[in-house]
Write a structure and sequence with these properties.
The chain contains 5 helices and 11 strands, in the order E-E-E-H-E-E-H-E-H-E-E-H-E-E-H-E. By secondary structure, it is an alpha+beta fold. The chain folds into 2 domains: about 10-135, Impact, N-terminal domain (Ribosomal Protein S5, domain 2, 2-Layer Sandwich), CATH 3.30.230; about 140-205, Alpha-Beta Plaits, CATH 3.30.70. It has a 5-stranded antiparallel sheet, with helices on both faces. Strands 9-10-8-11 form a 4-stranded antiparallel sheet, covered by helices on one side. A hairpin with a 5-residue loop joins strand 4 (about 55-65) and strand 5.
Length: about 210
């Protein structure tokens, strides 16, 4: 039995992209953008619907999380399986997560049929992925750190030296920092925090 180590990085995008594809009069505009939760996606989808009020369809797919378990597709009125799944297929072919693609369709008067639609949505998604740079980000585990203000320097030193990400911080008499700890350095970082007296370390859900 082979033992596979957990990946230390995941593939995503950190800036939005756009590409167009035309077929027999219909125009398909693909939008790719990074997201870190479902609400962020919903807000961006509403914006696109306002930007394209005359479009016939706003089809999409997204995938979230470093394990990729959170995903959704929508055909938005197109025949079942002709839009959302081909878009998701392109995300998965690039092995990306924490991002979404919305393809906005303007109907050109000619029916494309299911094979034509699958090709059009797949192509629009593929094109936007080609023009949007894919980046590697380190997988991090979120932790809450609670400590006395006299320990700020010691805690922040560990965070800086171990390349942790500060997600939020509250510095008062009693301080709280929400930090993303790189998976590859998790054991080391937790050990160093344990060495500091009276630093309460608690793992957070994603």
């Amino acid at each position: 039995m082979s033992v596979t180590s957990e990946p230390e990085f995941y593939r995503t995008i950190d800036q939005p992209g756009m590409a167009e594809f035309k077929d027999r009069g219909s125009k398909f505009v693909g939008y790719a953008f990074p997201i870190d939760n479902v609400d962020a996606f919903k807000q961006r989808l509403q914006q696109l619907k306002k930007e394209h009020p005359k479009a016939a369809h706003h089809c999409f797919a997204y995938r979230l999380g470093t394990d990729g378990n959170v995903f959704r597709v929508s055909d938005d009125g197109e025949p079942s399986g002709s839009a959302g799944k081909p878009i998701l297929g392109q995300l998965d072919s690039k092995e990306v997560t924490d991002m979404a693609i919305v393809v906005v369709r303007y109907f050109g008067g000619t029916l494309l049929g299911v094979p034509g639609l699958i090709n059009a949505y797949k192509t629009a998604a593929s094109l936007v992925l080609q023009v949007t740079p894919i980046v590697h980000k380190q997988i991090e585990v979120k932790y809450s750190l609670n400590f006395d203000y006299t320990q700020v320097n010691e805690v922040m030193m560990v965070i800086k030296q171990c390349e942790c990400t500060v997600i939020s911080q509250e510095m008062q008499l009693f301080c709280q920092v929400i930090a993303g700890i790189p998976l590859k350095r998790l054991t080391e970082v937790l050990y160093r925090f344990k060495e500091l007296q009276n630093v309460e370390v608690k793992k957070l859900r994603r």
